Q: What sequence folds into this?
């Protein structure tokens, strides 16, 4: 059983609480308004910052989610410092991860269609583990096979037919990730500019760490 599976719901909620407090502090520092939604999805705590009509929050996404990635890593470190163990917390900003998932599913479907038409394996561009997991799931849903190859940051996914001859064809490799773009919300806290009152927020992995735990599950 993995470390994450061993954690109780109370522990996951506590991680989310710590993350929410940390993110509130950051929003206060940069003087941004926003809501924080928290929940637990796929046994991972998830915290999402919602724009709430404040365009400034968009700056927390960055080019291709680079700022979201960095924000998630910092928040995980803050949680780890408090809890004493690694967290697979997922941080999202204004639904960025959900939009990214939808785009990746479209790209995966394009690769799947090409494999079906040609019968040949299709190699997709390098992706992080969060992105690869989405592709693996889509391929599995469509009845084909996929496998991750290479080393980070150039690790990529190959898509092929089940009947294709493939090294280790009986083993399908999936990436383990923080996958909680659809937030199960049980708390919402509104943070306003210049709000100096202390407030208690309760929490909610997701990216192979956008988080992105970068390991594939054999």
A:
């Amino acid at each position: 059983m993995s470390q994450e599976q061993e954690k109780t719901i109370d522990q996951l909620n506590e991680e989310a609480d710590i993350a929410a407090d940390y993110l509130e502090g950051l929003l206060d520092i940069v003087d941004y308004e926003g809501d924080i939604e928290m929940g637990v999805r796929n046994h991972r705590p998830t915290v999402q910052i919602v724009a709430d009509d404040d365009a400034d929050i968009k700056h927390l996404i960055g080019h291709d989610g680079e700022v979201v990635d960095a924000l998630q890593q910092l928040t995980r470190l803050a949680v780890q410092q408090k809890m004493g163990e690694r967290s697979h917390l997922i941080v999202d900003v204004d639904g960025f991860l959900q939009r990214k998932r939808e785009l990746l599913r479209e790209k995966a479907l394009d690769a799947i269609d090409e494999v079906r038409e040609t019968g040949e394996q299709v190699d997709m561009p390098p992706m992080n583990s969060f992105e690869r997991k989405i592709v693996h799931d889509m391929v599995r849903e469509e009845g084909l096979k996929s496998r991750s190859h290479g080393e980070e940051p150039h690790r990529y996914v190959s898509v092929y037919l089940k009947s294709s001859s493939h090294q280790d064809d009986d083993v399908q490799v999936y990436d383990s990730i923080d996958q909680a773009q659809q937030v199960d919300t049980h708390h919402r806290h509104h943070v306003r500019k210049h709000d100096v009152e202390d407030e208690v927020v309760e929490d909610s992995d997701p990216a192979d760490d956008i988080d992105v735990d970068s390991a594939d599950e054999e």
Summary: The longest helix spans residues 96-118.
